[in-house]
Design the sequence.
């Protein structure tokens, strides 16, 4: 029976470059080469934080406890007899083993991963043998972490017990994985827009977005209040409908007064579009309901348009919003 000690998860670097070290030399290891021999640091978390901040002075303050915590746990909290799970991205298998040795610092064995613990591998298992939730947990973004939610599932596999893996259409984790990736992407886009296109630059971005949507667009003169961009289908911009666009880079709530200012600029055959990174008040939305030639686009809807037309963005704008197409599982009905 698999022991009830802690179960840890570890990755072999972003490109799996430590995979051969793990599986061929029966060990697990972490990098952070510039930290040197970790056994020389006082065995408490604060000492590890101080060392990390000294060695990596340019990292963000929020990352310091993350890095320090991983190293501290690898050396002082992981015990001989604990279990370890290593997802091998090349073989598409999960290696499960038992920790057999204390921490050693051996840069001669591996200059890139000198901080090591010896392991007895108990088996390797195809990923299809595990639930999507278990795979998601060992796919943690951290290099070293504790497996808690699905630890019993990994122990059951080691014991040769059957593991009930839900059909994909019944696995709630499929929706969770897809949802978290989508939410992260949307948050990233809005943050980049608010940081890189504050004020007037967002107007230029909207021009490019409408061009990607198949319109001709241009920024207006700065002395024309409430209208920042003009868009139209014809080359000269003289055939209706003419779209007048107001752009707000604020992440606050646009009021009905803001929207009314745009509507006051609309003539016959003209439509109004109000774009903001934030949201709209309920009274502003009421105006949209009552005006067929008015569209209010909040931050979420702006992201929808960006994702829909991103393939037609030029290199400059893709560079500011670097996105890569990936396929994620979608929950089946």
Sequence:
């Amino acid at each position: 029976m698999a022991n009830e000690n802690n179960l840890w998860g570890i990755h072999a670097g972003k490109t799996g470059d430590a995979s051969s070290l793990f599986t061929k030399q029966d060990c697990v290891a972490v990098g952070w080469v510039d930290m040197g021999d970790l056994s020389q640091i006082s065995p408490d978390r604060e000492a590890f934080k101080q060392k990390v901040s000294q060695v990596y002075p340019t990292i963000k303050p929020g990352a310091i406890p993350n890095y320090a915590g991983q190293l501290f746990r690898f050396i002082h909290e992981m015990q001989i007899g604990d279990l370890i799970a290593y997802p091998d991205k090349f073989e598409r298998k999960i290696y499960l083993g038992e920790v057999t040795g204390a921490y050693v610092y051996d840069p001669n064995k591996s200059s890139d991963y000198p901080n090591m613990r010896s392991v007895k591998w108990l088996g390797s298992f195809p990923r299809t043998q595990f639930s999507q939730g278990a795979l998601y947990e060992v796919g943690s973004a951290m290099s070293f972490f504790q497996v808690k939610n699905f630890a019993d599932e990994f122990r059951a596999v080691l014991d040769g017990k059957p593991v009930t893996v839900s059909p994909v259409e019944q696995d709630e984790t499929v929706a969770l994985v897809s949802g978290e990736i989508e939410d992260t992407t949307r948050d990233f886009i809005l943050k980049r827009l608010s940081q890189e296109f504050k004020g007037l630059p967002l107007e230029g971005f909207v021009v490019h977005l409408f061009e990607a949507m198949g319109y001709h667009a241009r920024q207006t003169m700065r002395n024309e209040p409430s209208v920042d961009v003009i868009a139209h289908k014809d080359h000269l911009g003289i055939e209706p409908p003419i779209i007048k666009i107001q752009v707000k880079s604020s992440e606050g709530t646009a009021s009905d007064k803001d929207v009314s200012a745009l509507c006051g600029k609309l003539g016959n055959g003209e439509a109004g579009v109000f774009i903001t990174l934030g949201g709209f008040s309920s009274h502003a939305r009421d105006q949209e309901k009552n005006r067929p030639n008015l569209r209010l686009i909040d931050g979420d809807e702006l992201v929808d348009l960006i994702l829909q037309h991103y393939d037609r963005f030029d290199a400059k704008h893709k560079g500011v919003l670097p996105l890569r197409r990936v396929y994620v599982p979608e929950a089946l009905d």
Notes: The longest helix spans residues 172-196. Residues 197-320 form a domain with the Trna Endonuclease; Chain: A, domain 1 fold (CATH 3.40.1350.10).
